[in-house]
Amino acid sequence: MVGTIILVVVTLAVVGGVLGFSLRLVGMAESSVRRAGTMAGVGALVLLALGLYLGLVWAPAERLMGDVYRIMYIHFPSWVGTGAGYLTAFLASIFYLKTRDPGYDYVALAGAEIGLLFNVTGLITGALWGRPTWGVYWTWDPRLTTTAIMAITFAGYLVLRAFMEDPEGRARASSLVAIVGFVNVPIVYFSVRWWRTLHQVQSSPETVDAPIVWALRTMMVAFVLLFVFLLAQRFLLARIRGEEELELMKLEVAGD
Amino acid sequence: MSDLGRALALVRKDMITERRSKAAFNAMAFFAAMVLFIFSFALGPDAPGLTASGQGTLLQYLWPGLLWVAIFFTGILALNRSFQVEMESGGMEALRLYPGDKKAIYAGKLIANLLTLVAMELILIPVSAILYNIDLWNKLPALMGVIGMGTLGFAAVGTFYAALTANLRARDVMLPVLVFPILVPVVVAAVKATTLVIRGDPMGEMWTWLRIMGLIDLVLLTVCTLTFEFAIEE
To answer: Which residues in chain B have Cβ-Cβ distances shorter than 8 Å to A180?
Structure first.
């Protein structure tokens, strides 16, 4: 019981910390973004090495699935990255519409793109895991369907951005797409769940061997740090490009 | 003029332009007819249905799903055009300058799109029933209710995204890409409810699905109404 409470508190603190960091990127100087990114990147590298050792060597094979289950150490943390990415995009989009600060647009773009990266990783590792355990790569289960629709929604978000040249219009339109797309996720989930329902329910830590739990937790933290690292890099790139675009527009206006 | 009056004025304007140009309607009518023929060619007109007794054809068996595919694909054409008149004549500016709440513009465009879609369905449903040989007469009232609810969800999302993509060069591609993922819940609920109407409802699930569809419509309408003012900003 105490263990569960600690776990919930730690999880909430991590989620809050990551989101807080994502949104605070807007006001940060380039050097501090870089420093935070590097720190997260080094941490991610160390924990990834440790987690992979724990997961692939130290933790025992699963009773029914054998070694196949070890893909879980990538599959499961990927969804953490997906959630963090899309939630970042959603919140930053709301902040953008409120403040009209292009910084939030860059954060939203970074969140959506990295969320999509983890989303696709999760879908691919899930398909590879499904084949030996379920006998099929894909089934129309609510979670699979919802995550696939999520990927299409945010791929649409990125395509829309690619088609729009005016920075302000692009930021406004894509914010709306991110907001409506994010709100839609739970509706898709429940409608598909009522429509049909194979995915196993989550195992609780009590039913899983301790080494497996610890290896998985290490990988989750490693992926959170990896997310922070990627987000910081992508945000910087977006900001540099965005400022260049604004500079160019000013020059054009001045030239007229 | 109240907001309702403004919305209705917009509907009236859209209906008049549509009556005179018939642009959306012509595009939809031919497209819908072609879709119905393609289904028949693709699935085979005489393939047996998937019922235990093997009665009926595959087309009859799949009709609820095929109907909604036809409605969504055809409807996208009309939605794509719904802000075109404004875009071409610089009327977007006029719409933005329209006094009062921007929600009135959304309501007006939504009603206009709903009327266009319903007009298309009034042709599509009987023609598909004739072509695929389906007896609809005694199921008509329930069917109309279900189709109406599904169309409302479709039009709500479609109108919103049509406004968002109106000034894009690639809007013909972008509108379906953005709208269809959002429509997944509507598709699931609408096809399920239509199937229950056509094939009977032995388990009494109809009411549940109607409530789910109503809830989906409500959420989509609320989100789109609240954020619409951002969608038509310049």
So the answer is: 157, 160, 182, 223-224, 227
Contact call for A191 and B224, based on CB within 8 A = no
Element (H, E) at A66: none
Q: Which residue in the block uniquely carries the two structure tokens 């894009």?
A: B168
Question: Which residue among A163, A169, A180 places its CB closest to the CB of B182?
Answer: A180
Q: Does A91 touch chain B (CB under 8 A)?
A: no
Mean pLDDT along residues A110-116: 96
Residue A228 contacts residue A19 (beta carbons within 8 Å): no
Which CA distances in Å does B27 have to B74, B78, B162? 9, 8, 17
Q: Tell me, yes or no, whether A18 lies in a domain.
A: no
Report domain extents, chain B.
3-231
Is A21 part of a structural domain of the chain?
A: no
Per-residue pLDDT, A202: 58
Q: Residue A176 is nearest to which of B174, B216, B231, comparing CB atoms?
A: B231
Specify if A96 maps to a domain: yes
ipTM here: 0.86
> Residue B181: its chain A contacts at CB < 8 A?
149, 152-153, 156, 181, 184, 188
Q: State the total domains in chain A.
A: 1
Query: Which chain A residue has its CA at the smallest distance from B167's CA?
Result: A164
Residue A191 contacts B where some CB pair is shorter than 8 Å = yes
The answer to whether B181 contacts A175, with C-beta atoms less than 8 Å apart, is no
Distances (CA, A) of A216 to A47, A205, B104, B129: 11, 10, 52, 55
Q: A211 falls in which pLDDT band (50, 70, 90)?
A: confident
Is the pLDDT score of A80 beyond 70? yes
Nearest-CA distance A43 → chain B (Å): 36
Read off the amino acid at residue A20: G
pLDDT class of A198 with cuts at 50, 70, 90: very low
pLDDT in tens, B90-113: 888 888 887 778 888 999 999 999
Domain that holds residue A174: 30-255
Q: How far is CA A232 from the centre of its chain?
A: 13
Examine residue A41 and state whether it is found in any structural domain, yes or no: yes
Specify the pTM.
0.88
Please write down the long-range contacts of A208-212, taking CB distance under 8 Å and 24 or more positions apart.
A209/A59, A209/A60, A211/A54, A211/A58, A211/A59, A211/A60, A212/A55, A212/A59, A212/A60, A212/A62
A152 vs B: CB within 8 A? yes
